[in-house]
Design a protein that fits this description.
Protein name: VOC family protein
CATH topology of the largest domain: 2,3-Dihydroxybiphenyl 1,2-Dioxygenase, domain 1
Number of domains: 2
Number of strands: 9
Strand order of the largest sheet: 6-9-8-7
CATH superfamily of the largest domain: 2,3-Dihydroxybiphenyl 1,2-Dioxygenase, domain 1
Shape: globular
CATH architecture of the largest domain: Roll
Strand content: 25-35%
Distance between the termini: 48 Å
Helix content: 10-25%
Largest sheet: 4 strands, mixed
CATH class of the largest domain: Alpha Beta
Length: about 140
């Protein structure tokens, strides 16, 4: 028998303040609960396109990003959104510090920001259209 990994099942994030993180991921980013959260629980489970996102209360929370060979901070998590330009403006209007919107030929639009625990997150607008590619040549 050979092993066949089908998909990611769960991604777990360590968080300091579970209630603040729930508000961030559920209310700001619109990620729904997998099942109901009860106050006093030490974890909350959200659903990102069928993959579980576990927010796990921890006494110590390491920052989840790393530096690549070019010296650039890289996120562990990248989430795909529709209407990335509108999402970008909405987050900025809520006072969330976001990076500059970037465009990578063949890769599309994206930007970065940090969550309440300092984890670097990346939002990606999906594969570029032919019009996007032409506009960004």
């Amino acid at each position: 028998m050979s092993i066949h990994v089908r998909n990611f099942a769960v991604v777990q994030l360590p968080v300091k303040n579970l209630e603040v993180s729930i508000k961030w991921y559920r209310d700001v980013l619109g990620i729904p609960f997998t099942f109901e959260f009860s106050p006093g629980d030490n974890e909350a489970w959200l659903n990102v396109g069928g993959v579980g996102l576990g927010l796990i209360r921890c006494p110590e929370v390491p920052r989840l990003d790393f530096t690549d060979m070019a010296g650039q901070a890289q996120p562990i998590i990248s989430l795909q959104v529709d209407q990335i330009h509108e999402v970008y403006e909405e987050l900025k209007s809520k006072g969330i510090e976001v990076s500059e919107m970037t465009y990578k030929r063949g890769g599309g639009y994206s930007f970065r920001f940090r969550d309440p625990d300092g984890h670097l997150n990346h939002l990606w607008g999906g594969w570029p259209s032919a019009e996007d590619e032409e506009r960004n040549t």
